[in-house]
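To: structure subgroup
Subject: Chain for Friday's discussion

All,

I'm putting the inputs and outputs inline so they're searchable in the archive.
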Amino acid sequence: MDTNNFYVLEELRKLEQEKLHKKMQYNETYQLYSEVPRKKVCADFILFKICI
């Protein structure tokens, strides 16, 4: 195997590893905040009510 090919493969591996790490961090953060109870904020208008 040529050293250039090895270098390219190593860079691709690092890039994929970084992508995977970011995805794992996103999933952990999403799970952490999805379990937190949220306060509802409501705006009561004459004809309708909106809650977020």
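Points worth raising on Friday:
Residues 3-51 form one domain.
The first strand starts at residue 42 and ends at 44.

D.
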